[in-house]
Design brief:
The chain has about 90 residues and is α+β, with helices and mostly antiparallel strands. It is about 30% helix and about 20% strand. It has 2 helices and 4 strands, in the order βββαβα. A hairpin with a 2-residue loop joins strand 1 and strand 2. It is globular and about 30 Å long. The two termini are about 15 Å apart.
């Protein structure tokens, strides 16, 4: 996997494509929408769960703003699929 450069809050992310729970997903798929990228170390851990609960609580506001929430970790797709069933947003990659 190539190294990523630091993405600063509020700045445009470089184009990327990842394998996710719904198949391949590219940042370009969200063209025209605000995208909230969040990174977490592992699925089904206390930190991941807290982030998911926080995003779930705020989800109506994100949805109203047409913002897409995308969670990214290095876990397996099986772990993502198991974890993502809990959330109303995509914990995609």
């Amino acid at each position: 996997m190539p190294a990523m450069t630091k993405i600063e809050v509020g700045k445009k992310a470089p184009p990327f494509t990842l394998e996710g729970t719904g198949g391949k997903w590219a940042l370009a798929d969200a063209a025209g929408s605000a995208v909230v990228l969040y990174f977490y170390p592992r699925d089904n851990t206390p930190g991941c769960t807290q982030e998911g609960e926080d995003f779930t609580a705020a989800y109506p506001q994100f949805k109203k703003s047409h913002a897409l929430i995308v969670g990214i970790s290095a876990d397996s797709l099986a772990a993502h699929e198991n974890s993502s069933r809990k959330w109303p947003f995509h914990s995609t990659c």
